[in-house]
Here is the input.
Amino acid sequence: PPFSGPDPMRTYNIILKGIDQIEFTKKISRSAHVLIKKLCRDNPMERLGYGRNGISDIRKNKWFQGFDWDGLMNLTMTPPIIPKVKNPTDTTNFDSY
Here is the structure.
């Protein structure tokens, strides 16, 4: 995750420096990188989706190009991942901390 360090104090200091200091891995596309930074502005009024067009600005972002917003709203989308769950208390799909 963007704000992580080798120990809690380092993580805290990375958080204090802000989102603009984060260097994303090459696995994260440029459009995702830009979207994340726009959503994580320190000042809420500067965040994508806060302006006059609201969530429409988020929906129109390049990273969401081709996304089925109507399918999301109508609950008709097929999930990209369907985890296997053995029983109601199965937690094997979650990381251990």
Remarks:
- The two ends are 15 Å apart (CA to CA).
